[in-house]
Design a protein that fits this description.
By secondary structure, the protein is of the alpha/beta class. It has four domains: 118 residues, Response regulator (Rossmann fold), CATH 3.40.50.2300; 163 residues, Rossmann fold, CATH 3.40.50.300; 78 residues, Helicase, Ruva Protein, domain 3; 52 residues, Homeodomain-like (Arc Repressor Mutant, subunit A, Orthogonal Bundle). It is built from 20 helices and 16 strands. A five-stranded parallel β-sheet has the order 2-1-3-6-7, sandwiched between helices. A five-stranded parallel β-sheet has the order 9-10-13-8-14. The chain has a two-stranded antiparallel ribbon with strand order 4-5. Strand 6, helix 4 and strand 7 form a beta-alpha-beta unit. Helix 13 crosses helix 15. The protein is globular and about 75 Å long.
Length: 451
């Protein structure tokens, strides 16, 4: 039976919470201030602490930070709320942040969720939430530690990192380490869905709500009910849709297209972008209020070039998988290992995986790295190529030259060009349609030089 410590200077609130917690299957201890809380902690270490942020003899958050109770779950309660205090509470590892007067229904929900987490939480090492996140470098260890902290909470998470750094794997790890792990994990690439369809895909639509809507359609928010919704490339979402998403995050309710009936959204949102979110706000591609709502707990994914020791571990992991699938015994030669370690991998894990796959196909038994090993990667990185853009050329024309030149250098592979340019594949297709070059590459633009 989980043990709860209620620390609040209002005796009536303590008694009410104690009664509710008892009904939910908790043993309960009470404290009216920090001094009493320390005494109760010495008597029995609590599994859960409900802690007032302002106590007669000190600050609740400072008290919590000073305690060696990393295994306990904390829920802050306060009558003096602010956005900064809520963000600070969640970032320091709080499960939730409740406002006075405390909603009894909300309190019951929080206590039940924490109890479920405590009962289902495996012993250390029994389940590896990070099985797909290969690597033991210091940046990866820090990332996993932060994921473990935020996963049990309800905080929205914003994953920021270069293309190919594994943002979806990190989002899935957050889901697996959370109380929602038995419910759906649904990844959505906001840049890969048509702007005309994304609202319907996210929120669903009623039959007959628009041409072609011949049946009721449940969107991702409904299909992910109880679980986690991963919104990748969040900056590709239109401003109008960002307003709707913000409303869902703030109210916990949404409406299908074609109806005014609201539906409860029991979904934990994890968002991601390969852009600098603050720059996206400045550029007008991301609403500032949505950015602050999403980045309650921001996590930055390290690029592969900063993960010392992980490159070869990942390469060997990919090769083992290919050997198992193909029933082969191929291996890397020393020169191939050295080449991989010395390369900067601008495309990160995705580029490394593609290289290993291509090398596996080309090699007989030993992957020697002597067949233009990084030919494609060096092209996609744009080394040694230049285009000339005279001073005074309109920015739109300069962008056109750069996009077409990049596409030409990538051999017409649009996905590689989009990754190198730092834009989504959808954005690249839109630009090419504007240029009338959706299928062809402008030879003249690609042969100029850039200084």
């Amino acid at each position: 039976m989980p043990h709860l410590l209620i620390t609040d200077d209002d005796a009536a609130i303590r008694e009410l919470i104690a009664q509710i917690a008892g009904d939910e299957g908790y043993t309960v201890a009470q404290a009216g201030d920090i001094r009493q809380a320390r005494i109760q902690i010495e008597r029995q270490k609590p599994d859960v602490v409900l802690l007032d942020m302002q106590l007669p003899d000190g600050d609740g958050m400072e008290f919590w930070n000073s305690q060696a109770l990393s295994d306990s779950q904390v829920v802050f309660i306060t009558a003096h709320s602010s956005v900064d205090s809520a963000i600070q509470a969640l970032r320091c590892g709080a499960v939730d942040y409740l406002l006075k007067p405390v909603s009894l229904r909300r309190l019951q929900g929080v206590l039940r969720e924490i109890k479920s987490l405590l009962q289902e939480q495996p012993l250390p090492g029994a389940t590896d939430w990070f099985a797909k996140m290969i690597g033991h470098s210091r940046p990866m260890q820090l990332l996993c530690a932060h994921i473990e902290k935020v996963a049990p909470t309800r905080a929205t998470v914003l994953l920021v990192g270069e293309s190919g750094t594994g943002k979806e794997l990190a989002a899935e790890a957050i889901h697996l380490a959370s109380p929602r792990h038995e419910k759906p994990f649904m990844p959505v690439n906001c840049g890969a869905i048509s702007p005309n369809l994304i609202e319907s895909e996210l929120f669903g639509h009623e039959k007959g709500s628009f041409t072609g809507a011949d049946r009721l359609h449940k969107g991702y928010f409904e299909r992910a009910s109880g679980g986690t919704l991963f919104l990748d490339e969040i900056t590709e979402m239109s401003m109008e849709l960002q307003v709707r998403l913000l409303r869902v995050l703030e109210t916990g309710r949404f409406m299908r297209v074609g109806t005014h009936e609201e539906i409860a959204a029991d979904v934990r949102v994890v968002a991601a972008t390969n852009r600098n979110p603050e720059q996206a706000v400045a550029n007008g591609t991301l609403r500032e209020d949505l950015y602050h709502r999403l980045s309650v707990f921001p996590l930055e994914l390290p690029p592969l070039r900063e993960r010392e020791g992980d490159i070869l571990e990942l390469a060997n992991h990919f090769l083992v998988q290919l050997n198992e699938e193909g029933k082969t015994h191929k291996r890397f030669a020393p020169e191939a290992l050295a080449a991989m370690e010395s390369y900067s991998w601008p495309g990160n894990i995705r580029e490394l995986r593609n290289y290993v796959y291509r090398s596996y196909i080309l090699a007989d038994t030993l992957i020697k790295g002597d067949f233009n090993t990084f030919e494609l990667e060096s092209h996609s990185a744009g080394w040694g190529s230049e285009i000339l853009v005279p001073v005074g050329v309109p920015l739109a024309d300069a962008n056109k030259q750069l996009i077409l030149a990049t596409l030409k250098q990538c051999g017409g592979v649009k996905k590689a060009a989009a990754e190198m340019l730092g834009i989504s594949l959808k954005t690249l297709y839109n630009r090419l349609e504007e240029y009338g070059a959706a299928t062809d590459v402008d030879e003249h633009s690609s042969s100029s030089s850039f200084r």
